[in-house]
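Subject — a protein and its fold
Fields — amino acid sequence, C-alpha cells
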Amino acid sequence: MSLPTSWHGDWSQLTAVVLGLGKSGFSALDTLVELGVEALAVGEAADERLVDLAEVIGSKFIVDDSPKVLDELGFTPDFAVVSPGFAPSHPLVRELESRKVQLISDIDLAYRLRDKTPRVAKWIVVTGTNGKTTTCELTAAMLAAEGHRAVACGNIGNPILDAIRDPEGFDFLVVELSSFQLHYLGEIHPLASAFLNLAEDHLDWHGDMQSYFEAKSKIYLGTEVAIVFNEQDPKTLEAAQQADVLEGCRAIAFSLFTPQKSAVGFVEDILVDRAFLANRAEEALEIATESELSQIGPVSDQLRANVAAATALARAAAVPPQSIRRAITSFKLSPHRNQLVAEIDGVLFVNDSKATNAHAANSSLSAYDSVVWIVGGLFKGVDPAELIKKHGTRLRAAVLIGSETEQLAKLFFELLPGTAISVISGDSVMRDAVLAAQTLAEPGDTVLLAPAAASMDQFRDYADRGERFVRAVGELGA
C-alpha cells in the first residue's frame, strides 16, 4: 500500500510496528501515535524510561524480537519502522518482508512528514565512515551564522522526527545518515549531499564491503543542487559518478590540497572555494585560514577535510564566505572527539572515544608522536592488524580493553613484539586502564583513548566510554 506523503494526510486508519525502542525508535513511536496510527514497538530490550514513556503516550513495548512477536500485536501492520539495530538478515526483518509489510526508516517517515509546519525545511544529508557528526554540526553552524534556523539531526543523536515536530519549524535540516539508515532509505530529494570517506566498518551488519559501499552511495540519490565527494577517496568519486540526481545538480569535490575547478580545498594554509563563483576557472574565494581553523581544535587532516566538506555544503545553500568564517571561528567540537582532557606530569590525556573504527583511530593516532594507546571493544568484523602495523613506531605502549582482548594481544605480540601491553578487564575497566596508561607513559607522551571499536560490550555507548575516561583522568589529577 502507499503511505501518505504529508503530515496532513490520513494516517489514522493505519497500523505499524516499530523495531527497536532507542532514541530514534521512541521518536518514531511517539510520532506515529500523534498521527493517530495504531502502533507498538518491539525488541530484545529497551531502556526502562522509554518503556514507561511508551505507555504514557498510549502505546507499549513488547520484549520480543523474534518473528512470532508479529502474532502478538493484535493487528497486521501496514508498515514497519526499522531501527538501525535490525540488520537485513535479522529473522524479524525477513519475516516482515515475507509477509509483504512495507519497511521504512525514521528518515523516510520524516521526509513524508516534513510539511508539518508552514516552514518546510530544505534537507542537507551527510554520510561517510568518519567525520559525519562534525561535518553536520559545522554545516548547521554555517547556516545559522547566515541567519537561517538550522539543526543537525538524524544519526547524530538528535532524532530527526523530533526536529520535524518542532513547532517553529526549520529552514534547514542537516541530517547525518548511517549506512544502516541508508540501507532502508527510500527516495528523498535533499538540496545537497556529501559522502565523506569510506573504510571498513560495520561488516558484521552489511555482510561485505560492497554492500556497505552500496548503502553509503544511496546518499546522493535524488539530490537537487550539489553532491559533494572527497577528492582523496576514489570510492566517493565512484559513487558520485554513478549517482542518479536531478537535472542540473553539480558534483563538487573537497580536498586537502589545492582545489581544481568546481572544488573546495586548501592553497597552502588558506581554505578556498573554486566551485561556487562565476569565474571559477581563474579565481578562488578565500574562506578561512588554518589559524582560524585551529580555534576549533588541533588542525589534523580529518578536521581540514570536515571543514572543507561543510564549506562545500554551506556554499551549495548560498551561504557567503564571511558567514562561514564566522561559524568556523566560533565552533566547538562535541565531546569525545579528540578532546584534550588534561596534562598531568607532562603527559597529555586525550579522549577520542568517538573513534569507533580503524579509520577514525588512524586519524587520531596520526596527530601524536608518542602514544600510550587505549584500544579495544567490538571490532564489528574488521581486522585491526593494518592499523596496529601502521602506527607501531609511534606507540610507547598499548592498554587493551573490551571483549576481544585475546585477539588484540595476539596481534600485538605478532606485529609489535617489543611493545609493552597491559590487558584490562573487570567492572572498573576504564579507571584501571587509565591507571595502567599513566604507569606506562613518560613526559611528552599522549595517553589516547581511540578504541577503533564499538563500545557496547562494556559501556552503554561511546559517550559513556568517553565520560568514564574523563572521570578517571580527573581522579588522577585530583
